[in-house]
Amino acid sequence: MASPAQPSHPQLAVSAAIFRDGRVLLVRRAKSPASGFYSLPGGRVEFGETLHTALHREVDEETSLRIEIAGLAGWREVVPGAGGGGHYLIMSFAARWRSGEPVLNDEHDDFRWLTPEAIDGLLGDLKVTDGLPEIIEAARRLLQA
Predict the structure, then answer these.
(1) pTM for the complete prediction?
(2) Domain 11-144: which CATH class?
């Protein structure tokens, strides 16, 4: 099956570093882009949607969790490489888990609640998206403030 055509302009997306009892939720992508990599739940912002509305919608669609957004933890820009892919500006937020247990949709095939220290210790064994540890650390600092 062919990949859908990529838009000709950058796409705005959101993600959430969701903390629960000192651990952050990582989800493993089951599809391209970044298939097999652990990252934060999130996705594209739809036209006319606020960043917070998009984040709540994406977290609900991908994990069924309810969250409280604490604030913007940082951003990442993903540009197409030699293998193609899309151009995304991802606004990453710090969030607190409020209710629910992870129920993944078909975009993901695994999840883990890990401490930031455990993630750092697993970086050689765990494939994570670029900049993930820095975003998680910024989110943790924001939640501790």
Answers:
(1) 0.91
(2) alpha beta
| d(C-alpha 28, C-alpha 33), whole Å | 11
- Output the DSSP codes for 3-72: PPPPPSS-EEEEEEEEEETTEEEEEEE-SSSSTT-EE-SEEEPPTT--HHHHHHHHHHHHH--EEEEEEE
pLDDT in tens, 13-46: 999 999 999 999 999 999 887 889 999 999 999 9
Q: How confident is the model at residue 2 (pLDDT cuts 50, 70, 90)?
A: very low
Q: Are strands 88-99 and 108-114 parallel, antiparallel or unpaired?
A: unpaired
